[in-house]
Amino acid sequence: LANTEATLSSTRTTMQSMLSQNAIAAGYNGDIIVSAVVNDDGIIAYLTVDASGETEGLGQKVMETDYLVQFLGKTLPLTLGADVDAATGATATSQAVVDAVNQIIK
Questions:
Q1: 24 vs 7, 12, 19, 99, 102, CA distance in Å?
Q2: Are 23 and 104 in contact (CB under 8 A)?
Q3: How far apart are CA 57 and CA 90, in angstroms?
Q4: pLDDT of the chain along its 106 residues, tens only?
Q5: What are residue 26's phi and psi, to 5 degrees?
Q6: Measured between alpha carbons, how far is residue 26 from residues 20, 66, 76, 87, 100 in Å?
Q7: C-alpha radius of gyration, the chain, whole number
Q8: Are 95 and 68 in contact (CB under 8 A)?
Q9: Residue 100 and residue 85: Cα distance in Å, rounded?
Q10: How far apart are CA 3 and CA 14, in angstroms?
């Protein structure tokens, strides 16, 4: 029983330290809302982006899995162009995503 309680306590501590955090940054056409799970070492474990106010086919690309996957496993802070690439035709929106993600560690 003691081992089970210790395991539960450890799991609870891990989960509390990895709760989703939100941040907002100004995009090209409006606010970009980022929700991320970052572990204690500043490594991104999960990321979603709401850029629904951005231009369809351009800025909205930052919400797609193909774009977001490049953030996973990266350590904060990030730099656009060095750590992650911009979505084609959406540099301002991509920078807003990076800015919002970086706010999470401040």
A1: 35, 28, 17, 8, 10
A2: yes
A3: 9
A4: 666 666 665 555 555 456 789 999 999 999 999 999 988 888 999 999 999 999 999 999 999 999 999 999 999 999 999 999 999 999 999 999 999 999 987 6
A5: -75, 125
A6: 20, 22, 19, 16, 9
A7: 16
A8: no
A9: 15
A10: 16
Residue written as token pair 């990321």: 47
pTM check: above 0.90: no
- The encoded tokens of residue 61 equal 């690309």
Q: What angle do CA 13, 18, 24 make, to 5 degrees?
A: 145
The SS3 call for residue 56 is: coil
Angstrom distance (rounded) from CA 28 to CA 97: 11
Handedness of CA 11, 17, 18, 19 (dihedral sign): positive
Residue 2, phi-psi category: left (phi > 0), alpha (psi -120 to 50), beta (remainder): alpha
Which of 63, 20, 14, 24 is CA-nearest to residue 38? 20
Q: Is 101 helix (H, G, I), strand (E, B) or coil?
A: helix
